[in-house]
Amino acid sequence: MSSRRSRISEEEMNELVSKLQSLLPETRRRGTGRTSAAKLLKETCNYIKSLHREVDDLSDRLSALMATMDLDSAQADIVRSLFRS
């Protein structure tokens, strides 16, 4: 191992795992029980994949909505303004 790499102490690792755990909805619902770092990383990956699917679904739904909308309507202006924010 290179001497330039900084090592993370066990305390720092536990703090990072705890922070990550607090960001995941599933682990927040379960409470503060200890989860292994490996399991937490797997849950994080699954959560990110589910967010990607949700974004894709919302994008598809928005595209379908825009396709049915009069592009010169007030509704279309509102939707466009949301994208500019």
TrEMBL record:
PROSITE patterns: BHLH
Signal peptide region: none
InterPro entries in alphabetical order: bHLH_dom (IPR011598), HLH_DNA-bd_sf (IPR036638), PRE (IPR044293)
One Pfam family it belongs to: bHLH_ILI
Tagged with keyword Transferase: no
UniProtKB keywords: Growth regulation, Transcription, Transcription regulation
Domain BHLH: 1-51
GO MF annotation list: protein dimerization activity
GO biological process: regulation of DNA-templated transcription; regulation of growth
Family statement: Belongs to the bHLH protein family.
Name of this chain's protein: Transcription factor ILI5-like
Taxonomic source organism: Canna indica (Indian-shot)
